[in-house]
Amino acid sequence: MSFPNDRIYSFDANLVLSDGAAAYTATGYAQVGGANAILDLGGNQGTVPKQQARLDAVVVMEVSAIKISAGNETYKLILVGSNDPGLLTGNVVLNEIMIGKGASLDILNGADNVTGQYEIPFSTNQGGSLYEFIALYVVAAGTSPSITFTADIGVMMEP
């Protein structure tokens, strides 16, 4: 679904973080084809020192359903970076957003979130370190939370 103020990003099937096939009702990694979606952004791993490219991009999420009817549901969407292909060690937060019932958000006087497009800008360069692998971690909280969305990486154009 497109909205008047949305940017348009080129879609790349290799950069999908969530296929929206099922609702997320518990905390865990976003999935594609029923498996945790961990993207390998590449890099020349056979060199010493390891060579990786910095990527400045945006996670483009299309939320098609979000439950906030109990009045306490929240969804924290955390983009995780790592140099471990299984995300078993050394993970960092590249960026995150929190959506859900406004009164339950971690801010004062929060507005209720609705379906539509959400964007999470990020860089793979954090504290001078570059990260090759990324995944989207969903923290679902509240009474019977449920959110359905697709998510992919859109590369931001140079100005």
Unreliable sequence segments: none
Tell how many strands the DSSP assignment holds.
13
Terminal-residue CA separation: 26 Å
Quickly count the domains. Answer: 1
- What is the CATH-assigned architecture? Sandwich
Helix and strand succession?
A: EEEEEEEEEEEEE
- Assign the CATH class: Mainly Beta
**Structural class of the secondary elements?**
mainly beta
DSSP summary: helix tally: 0
The coarse overall form would be globular
Describe the fold and architecture.
Strands 2, 5, 7, 8 and 12 form a 5-stranded antiparallel sheet that branches. The chain has strands at residues 16-19, 28-29, 31-32, 35-36, 39-40, 56-66, 74-82, 92-100, 116-123, 125-126, 129-130, 133-141, 147-155. The chain is globular. With 159 residues, the protein is an all-beta fold. The mean pLDDT is 91. The protein contains no helices and 13 strands. A hairpin with a 2-residue loop joins β10 (125-126) and β11. The chain has a single domain (14-155), classed as Jelly Rolls (Sandwich).
Features:
mainly beta; five-stranded antiparallel beta sheet; 159 residues; Jelly Rolls
Q: How is the secondary structure organized here?
A:
Elements (H helix, E strand, L loop, with lengths): L15 E4 L8 E2 L1 E2 L2 E2 L2 E2 L15 E11 L7 E9 L9 E9 L15 E8 L1 E2 L2 E2 L2 E9 L5 E9 L4
Antiparallel strand pairs: 1-13, 2-12, 3-4, 5-12, 6-9, 6-13, 7-8, 7-12, 10-11
Offer a concise description of the structure:
The protein has 159 residues and is mainly β. Helix content is 0%, strand content 45%.
